[in-house]
Amino acid sequence: MSTHTEHTVAGVERPGTIKFAVAMMITGAVLRLVDMIITASSKSQLAELTRQQVESQGLEASTEVLNAAVNQAVTITMMSGIVAIVLWLWMARMNHTGRKWARTLGTVFFVIAVFSFLFTLTTPAIGISRVVATLSLLVGLAAIIGMYRQDSSDFYAESSGH
């Protein structure tokens, strides 16, 4: 018979800070899905941004080239979005069960997300996408804070038997 219940892992009570961090991770996955939907439905705006960027460099691009660039950007966003959603949900599950390594890996993912966010600030983007990206970063920060609270640290230590 399993010693896991909705509120415990191996008999260790799951603290509210872990529940909060997991909820933030699920929220992060949802925000990434929202970003994917925005990107897929904003092809004409992306084409205009791309055209403006090309023209600002004194170049010209045909409609075919612009469409190809937009389609490539949308494809990359969709593929990276699927990977991000899977990682958000995987981290939520592993942290929910008290895996100490998941907190460390989640922290690494957050650091990567910060650098990625800073990079995206240097590129043209649709305004609402920047809002969603900012919210995602704040959600990630909230999850990190929840995972490193003292009662969360105690939970990880007790769940891993250390």
Automatic annotation (TrEMBL):
Transmembrane segments: 20-40, 69-90, 102-121, 127-148
UniProtKB keywords: Membrane, Transmembrane, Transmembrane helix
Protein name: Uncharacterized protein
Origin species: Candidatus Avipropionibacterium avicola
